[in-house]
Write a structure and sequence with these properties.
Largest sheet: none
CATH class: Mainly Alpha
Radius of gyration: 18 Å
Number of strands: 0
Number of domains: 1
Helix content: over 70%
Number of helices: 9
Strand content: under 5%
CATH superfamily: Tetracycline Repressor, domain 2
CATH architecture: Orthogonal Bundle
Order of helices and strands: HHHHHHHHH
Length: 189
């Protein structure tokens, strides 16, 4: 039944990302998932459990995407990391845009509901830990702190592009600029 559960969660993310938290109902998710009525409520007995399931699903999808976009040599230097981050940003604003907007809807809900805010915070921390290992390999003296700064920049960049999209958007220059401020200057031969 894990396949059906993932189908429901994918649909819940789609509903949340296109209709906001108010639109996240069992009926809307069942319809979007093209499953029999009651399927979502069978997997998630309360709306709180559904929202928690969505947060965890987003975390897993983000980690899966990051591993795909960051595949390759971690020793390739800051440009390789900038390329991986740029691919990730483009994906989050393109094919995975609904996930990005779903995450923002959840973040706003988290302002008043710790049950939403806390798992979102844990998901962000797990992505920071995953990425900070790359910064450590590139010589960052404070990889966790530097990764938090990097993620703050990326969050702002993505948010601005969602809310006020630029036609000719290219995240790479800004990412390279932030990385060059965080990482030690490369030594010559």
């Amino acid at each position: 039944m894990a396949g059906r559960r993932d189908q429901v969660l994918d649909a819940a993310v789609q509903v949340l990302g296109t209709g906001g938290l108010r639109g996240l109902t069992y009926q809307a998710v069942d319809k979007a998932a093209e499953v029999p009525a009651g399927t979502t409520s069978n997997h998630f007995r309360s709306r709180t459990l559904l929202v928690a399931g969505v947060v965890d699903h987003l975390r897993a999808l983000d980690a899966q995407d990051w591993k795909k976009f960051a595949a390759g040599p971690m020793e390739g230097g800051p440009q390789v990391l900038a390329d991986a981050l740029s691919r990730t940003v483009r994906h989050m604003l393109g094919p995975a845009r609904h996930r990005t907007t779903a995450r923002y809807a959840l973040a706003l809900e988290g302002l008043v509901r710790p049950t939403v805010r806390e798992p979102l915070g844990r998901a962000r921390e797990s992505m920071i830990e995953l990425t900070s290992t790359w910064l450590a390999r590139l010589g960052s003296p404070e990889p966790l702190e530097h990764c938090k700064v990097l993620f703050d920049y990326l969050d702002g960049l993505i948010f601005n592009q969602v809310v006020l999209p630029q036609e000719q958007f290219d995240p790479e220059l800004g990412i390279r600029t932030v990385l060059s401020a965080l990482l030690p200057a490369p030594h010559g031969p």
